[in-house]
Fold this sequence. Notes:
The complex is a heterodimer of chains A (417) and B (181).
Chain A: H1 2-7, H2 11-22, H3 24-39, H4 41-51, E1 54-58, E2 63-66, E3 71-73, H5 78-84, E4 91-96, E5 102-103, E6 111-114, E7 117-120, E8 129-136, E9 141-151, H6 158-161, E10 163-168, E11 173-176, H7 181-184, E12 193-196, E13 199-200, E14 208-210, E15 216-219, E16 228-238, E17 241-254, E18 263-266, E19 270-273, E20 279-289, E21 296-301, E22 304-305, H8 306-309, E23 315-317, E24 321-325, E25 328-337, E26 349-355, E27 358-368, H9 374-416
Parallel strand pairs in A: 1-9, 2-9, 10-17, 19-27
Antiparallel strand pairs in A: 3-7, 4-5, 4-8, 6-7, 8-9, 11-15, 12-13, 12-16, 14-15, 16-17, 18-20, 20-25, 21-22, 21-26, 23-25, 24-25, 26-27
Chain B: H1 7-11, H2 19-30, E1 47-53, E2 58-62, E3 65-69, E4 82-86, E5 92-97, E6 102-109, E7 112-119, E8 128-134, E9 137-142, E10 149-153, E11 158-159, E12 161-163, E13 171-172, E14 175-179
Antiparallel strand pairs in B: 1-4, 1-14, 2-3, 3-11, 4-5, 5-6, 5-8, 6-7, 8-9, 10-12, 10-13
Amino acid sequence: MQSCRLLGAGPQLSTFCVLQKLSGTMFILCMVIMGASAFTVQPEQHTVAARNCQFRGKHFKKYYRVEGEPVVLRCPQARSWLQTSASSHFNTTWHKNDSGRMVPGEEEKRLWVQDGALWILPALQRDSGAYVCTVRNASYCDEMSIELSVLENTEASLPFTSYLQIVTLSTLGLLSCPELSEFTRNKTGLNVQWYKDSVLLDQDNRKFLSLRGTTRLFIYNVSVEDAGYYSCGLPFSHNGTRYNITRNIKVRVNQKEEEPIPVIVSPHQTILASLGSRLTIPCKVFLGVGIKSTSTVWWTANDTIIDSAYPGGRVTEGLEKEYSENNENYIEVPLVFDPVIKEDLKTDFKCIVTNRMSLQTLRTTVKEASTFSWGIALAPLSLVFLVLGGIYMYRWCKHRPEKGYSLTTVKTDHEDF
Amino acid sequence: MAVSFALPWSQDGNLKVPLSYLISLILLLFHSEAACGPTQRRPYKMQTFRIWDVNQKVFYLSNNQLVAGYLQAANAKLEEKMNVELTESRGGMFLGIHEGKLWLACVKSGDKITLQLEVRTCFRYWTTIKTQQNGPTTSFESAAYPGWFLCTESEGDGPVSLTNKPGNATKVTQFYFHVEQ
């Protein structure tokens, strides 16, 4: 069982173990081996010591390479291992997971280990598979597997081998030929060739500029047509044989992100409402003229998102509505109270809008529509004043023509005196 | 430095500092690992951005470390998008990854400022990043430690870190930062 468990490190090997268990003869054989190993204690301990290597699993990144080209696999755990014990000397070995054979094997001249990295030159489709890298020194050992897929360099393999790179419309685009550092280290005068849809982009091309000595390609004034599959190639010589290292790139053209800062048009700073009634406060945001916006609008109550502030749902955010008025785009999110309670009068409500890198807020408070309203109080009062004023005017007007008369009357009265 | 720790609260525009926050502030002053007030919630919604450096390297997680490198189409699902929560101060933001489960924080260690991934208990000032738009590219500066910029290695896959020498040829501090389309 011990041997099975040890073998069970890889998924394929564990299947092998299961098969062993199913097969009676194989099981007996396994027991015999175990029995035999029990008598040879010393070699067993040695094997365990050799195998007692922490298996850190499969590296999350798979490598897709093109047939006939040089491939370099570097121990994925070496980087972190080196960081933790940089001064320790360590020994790196490689073996192929399916065959268990050590690489480089005696029969294979195409594979060798150089500075801890596994070189395959040229890579063939049959080299595909999982490679286990073991890093050890006197006191420490760990291993990790890395998956390699060697594919034919055809259009059908592009979806697997290509790297996505993004350029922006109407700007200077920059592509980078990826994962060449193993071949470009300590080298000057690099000559990376660039292709678009298999057509060489030569130096005379005004649209593209490949900077000699770098792995970069500039695309002047990026247009929609610049999207598509590119490939870059680096010539590489080994023992007098010339090879090419190809990387495929899928270029996507993004729209330029130029968006005006949105403006919150409403609500007002204070909203009047009567307690117990239903209230809707719309937050209306002007997004700009004739553009597609990435704005998001939402409400907060005392700096808490509405859903969290009112789990009971008394106050909710209504449905977001996007609309156009004379080519001007607006977005509206209502805040719905059902009903308004006293607590809302002390709550700080904010409408927030963000787009890309801007954030705008507008604060609003709910005020109770008071039962003693000055408007209501003033209406009868003004009526009274109006009536009184009317009476006075009436009397004054009535009195005026009578004035002469009354004077005469007075006079008369006076005469009477 | 102690004064700037008080800023997360004023940044939220919350001028009335409740007692619980004052207690947390005092705790912070004495012990920087103290948690924020239990009721503190960020009111802002996350936006998702795609980030890549000028060498077209994207971010991914390797052994719980944020790494910038090249990913082939079949590995593209490993790419980490940036979760952004803007602050009310212009250009200020919190940057997270992994659907907002981990947040970038600038932490002092000796003379250097290092980048760490924090599981968020609350928003802290040293997790605030200031952005600066330089034409089509953006640079990210630590708000707590001005002069320290988010950077990637110019050669090979390497950890995303902070540098106070943004002009250094071995480091890349310019990024493309687009809303996920």
